[in-house]
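Example 3.
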Amino acid sequence: MDSLEPTQPLNNSFWNDTGKTGITSWIFSTDHKRIGLLYFYVTFGFFLTGVLLGLLLRIELMAPGRTIMGPQTYNALFTVHGVVMIFLFIIPGIPGAFGNLVMPIQVGARDVAFPRLNLLSWWLYIIGALIVLTSLFSGGGAPDTGWTFYVPFSSRTGTNVSLAVFGVFIVGFSSILTGVNFVTTIHRLRAEGMSWGRLPLFTWSLYATAWVQILATPILAITLVLIMAERLLGTGLFDPSRGGDPVMYQHLFWIYSHPAVYIMILPAMGIISDIIPVFSRKPIFGYKMIAFSSIAIAAAGSLVWGHHMFTSGMSDTAVMVFSFLTFIVAIPSAIKVFNWISTLYKGSISLEAPMLFALSFILLFSIGGLSGLILGAAATDVHVHDTHFVVGHFHYVMFGGTGFAIFAAMHYWLPKFYGRRYAEKPAVVAWALMFTGFNVLYFTMQVLGMKGMPRRYYDYLPEFANLNLVATIGSWILAAGLVIMVVNLFRGLWWGVPFEGNPWGGASLEWTVPTPPPTENFIEEPVVTHGPYDFSNTERS
Amino acid sequence: MSEQHIVSNKKLTCIWLILLVLTTLTVAITRVDLGGYKVFGALTIACVKAGLVIAVFMHMKYEGKLLRWLLFLALVTLAIFIGLTFFDVLYR
């Protein structure tokens, strides 16, 4: 198999051609590839932390009654699981890591438009993350409100909500800066010949995402400031006894946080749109419609936040309006799914690890999306609201969707930046285990929810015991696959067989630069003469 | 992109005085019994003030089309968010 001797990074690449070494050459670097890798390792570290917390939650739910923790610990753990996964992993995950690594090369630029702002964005993310982590071990202990910080509980609980919320506030600014940087880069730094119709779809999806980051994140920032004002100054904004309105908090929170799930899923869809044609050796079907549907999802997805509040005492008129708008988002999402399937039709498909993850994305995202319609329809939502059905739905979209897309991107793009291969067989075994474990875990959750098991309780009625045991076993299969994937991938990236050239036969610009790419990406200014999915002149090498 | 527009002191002072007058008006309007229109009046004055600050102090009046469109987009987004929230508030 691989040669396992630790080897030096390959010559004349961004790993070593700056002449600087040591940790400061990384944490103060303005090179988009180094910042991308910094983001990748930190976000992935938080992902593994979140997985560990999730496994503990599943062990607690393995049997009725107290298994390994009491209710207060359980409440704190699911809150921290949510905050870490959402704010510290999925939101910055794809734009911060793969957006930074790949997007500037895909548009033919030497770097992003504002490299120093990019570094500042990473630092803000790290500072915010450290504050969130501090909040877990100081003051009144880890927040126990759930990641949504709903009032009135969040304004009254004695746990350390103020500090956690402040950390998330700072992470939000990092997200805004990334958005500003990407919009500017895509508008102004495209290479000669790189017209809007030749942008790879991953870049298109980042463009749509960046706009949501810029326009929606400030609202989260304001909402979080209001929670702090409520807790520290007692403003009474959300307290009905003083003329406030608790439902208004939910409006403000979801005005950001619903678009935020599109910040999470849109770039994932971009990854899939880039991988499927390469592994089918066929141009993407419906390029324009996929690009357009990214913008449509970003726009329509910003107008559906009320569907989180059908049972919160919102007016019936608003319930109908938001339910209708929610169904509209299904249209551009379905456009993407149908176009991916049409791309596969009569393609020359090669089933390697990135493609396997990409194909399972389509299935898992579709299950998650369709269960979302059950939640988006007001009548059925009243039945399953706040049950495990919601937990299952959310994990199907966010983990089965975005998570699997990140795994696909890790196998597809990271070897290019390391210049080393991973072993294919263990990657496929890992995928099979994860795919199986995933469905055993989350499909069971959806069934439990339909039967009426509520979310956010550390205990349940005896009739739910068998299915909960099945779900917990599923979580172990999933974790086993994850361990194999991580070990195999990083072993390959750090010590694997070096390669050069174009391993997958991709046609977008990132496959034309040397492996690993040099610091300013291109040895000569690129001139783009064909689209990103025109494979007529590319071969695997 | 690079040319700087310098606003004269006279103009800046003038805008500042207008803002002060409008602030006084905002306070004064609370003393008059206008019923529900009071909020409407206060918000209108606030919008005029914000508009003056953005146009002159923040130089939007002298900027190109792109930046104006971006600002417009942000304001429209905000208006849509607030507008949709009123489907709840008005019909409860």
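Confidence is low (pLDDT under 50) at residues 1-6 of chain A. The CA atoms of residues 202 and 274 of chain A lie 6 Å apart.
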